[in-house]
Fold this protein.
Amino acid sequence: MQATDTIVALSTPSGRSGIGVIRISGKDALVLTRSLLRDQNFNPQPNQVILRTLRDANSGEVLDRALVTYFKAPHSFTGEDVIELSCHGSPPLLLHVIDTLLFYGARASDPGEFTLRALANDQLNLTQAEAIRDLIDAQTHAAVRQAARQLGGELSARLQPYIDALLKIIVPLESTIEFVEDNLPEDVTKNVASELSALIQNLEDLAKTFSTGRLLKEGLRVTLVGRPNVGKSSIFNGLLSLNRAIVTDIPGTTRDSISEILTIHGIPIHLTDTAGMRISIDEVEQLGIERTRQSIADADLVVIILDGSQSLISEDKEVLAEATQHRHLIALNKSDLETFQLKRAEYLFNDHTVIPISAKLGTGLAPLKAAIIEPFSGINSHETDFVISNARHYDLLLRTANSLRSTESLLMSRATEELILVGLYDALRFLGEITGETTPDDVLAQIFSTFCIGK
Ligand SMILES: Nc1nc2c(ncn2[C@@H]2O[C@H](COP(=O)(O)OP(=O)(O)O)[C@@H](O)[C@H]2O)c(=O)[nH]1
Ligand SMILES: [Mg+2]
């Protein structure tokens, strides 16, 4: 996995900006930079920022005045020689500088290749590399905090005692194989069994935090449904505090689902406004209603909206029949109207609190927000303990626990040590896959393909 070539990439987003940072990593980083500066005597002190002139390869004309920083191997992010060029953030200029470096022999980096090199050179482990990606992709402060903790090595530190505990079971078993002809003595079996069950418990407890971690990372999909004109689009706009969806008193105005992201207490909410559900002969509207059904099916939570100023009509009942099959909340809109009646019998759904709202006045939106995240309360960026936020880690923790469970039953049925050890070694390998020690190359390639270029 040791890289021999020198890679280059733009590390800041493409587009106009104050500065744009180009990163070069590899053994020729300094040689390439000397060419770019047309200065063969360029010998910078590591970790110091120097202002230099960058020049075109053919004409020698000035491209930019840029800040150049040299990080000498192994004291760099990748563990290789690294040069960072802070240029002015003009897209054509940055392209020109990169093209010039390619001309001198650099190679355009693949996604995540800088981080992959850092991993190969033991500058960080796999969970930390993944944390860098998660940090960059984080959509909320809570997700940033979790990624930062993982970047600090918290996950690997949490796994280490489990790896130690496994080794503590494996090592004596290995030595028993060589000396004992018969089955394991009763007391050894008992000891191993109790150590195993404690370990399984710990692993499962850690795995369970994934439900919270996934929520912090991916958020909650919430879909607003109701018949036309109950005020879905008005509530959608109200929750987002902006006029995103078109609101009219013409039923059937919203013909396609639209989605936006808002955050409630650090949890990203993917909010979808849908076409009103009703029987329609209009083909476009029918397609919209089909999308509404899809959006209901995909949602973690459906908010059913009814017009509280009117009696329930058959279209409402159809919406209720369909949407109450999913996790749902009921909101009663238009509480500002005189005919609004929260206590009307038909709205008293037995096991449900109904939230009164006036999208027009903006009242009731805060209680609605609170109700949306209520099942997830306690997940607060300040209270939350470290959680598993990556499906790959979750899967491997479960596989570890499962293979220990099978080992446990083998132990109970007094299987041979060799058989018992197979499951224990599997568990050890799964834990090692989390931190990258035993991760197969194709899995690594898959992980790094999800990174952005320049990281
Ligand atoms: N009085 C009153 N009118 C509302 C309220 N919410 C929405 N409306 C009106 O109801 C009509 C339909 O609203 P809209 O949001 O487009 O409903 P949708 O079809 O469910 O998306 C519009 O004329 C809105 O101004 C409310 O809370 N009170
Ligand atoms: Mg609408």
